[in-house]
Amino acid sequence: MEEYDRQDARVYDHYSTGVPGDVEFYVAEAVNAGSPVLELGCGTGRILIPVAEAGVEIVGLDRAPSMLAVAREKVVKLPPDVQKRIQLVEGDMRDFALGRKFVLVMIPYRAFLHLLTVADQKRALRRVRDHLVDGGRLILNVFDPSLETIVAHRGSLGSALKLEGEFVHPETGRRVLVWDTREYRAEEQTLHQYFVFEELDEAGNVVFKRFNPLVLRYVFRYEMQHLLELAGFAVEALYGDFARGPFCSGGEQVWIARRR
After folding, report:
1. For the whole model, what pTM was predicted?
2. Helix (H, G, I), strand (E, B), or coil: what is residue 118?
3. Which pLDDT tens digit goes with each residue over 211-255?
4. Which of 217, 232, 251 is the last residue of a domain?
5. 229 and 201, same structural domain?
């Protein structure tokens, strides 16, 4: 996870916008659960801040100082009563000790997939359980691996560069193209992805280029269920999207699990 003192933190929000409906889903679950809530992998505060604005006390933990710096810049601009409901902590979801318990722990936007070994996955889930009150809940989402996509993207990294989108750089005002290339390594159960950012001048010339690597370990449905149960959780629900639709292979896994 060394890539996660992210060089792209300053522009992360401009191209990485989450999964449709995820903010509203997590806010509703946090309001229903009450305070306090813990978010692991809180990043720049995309979900954390709306939760606090909804009246819930929340602690956000992330291992990337650069992402937390962006989150802090956002927090100081909020009304004082909202600021008081937010605490940001630099830490690793595999090994954290906050000295308190929570009614809800959230791991949004596939952050769990940054855990690249089964041992790390188990460690993180045990730490989550230790920080939950009796009957407290864990909610997380990961993408469900598509076997067709895995087969299509096996091979040499960099063989299929694809334009993913574009945005206007918040500091320079220039147009930025976002490309990516990906490779699935089935034997490791990992996705290796490379983002390429090209910043263009008014004539369309590339004046700045940045490469950002990303490695995720994808998790299949029953593998995730087994991990949760091994760690002392009872699965309450599995949805296929943030509208609480049924699970469908190749879509999203949205898990709600209760501490046993």
Report:
1. 0.93
2. helix
3. 888 999 999 999 999 999 999 999 999 999 999 999 999 999 999
4. 217
5. no
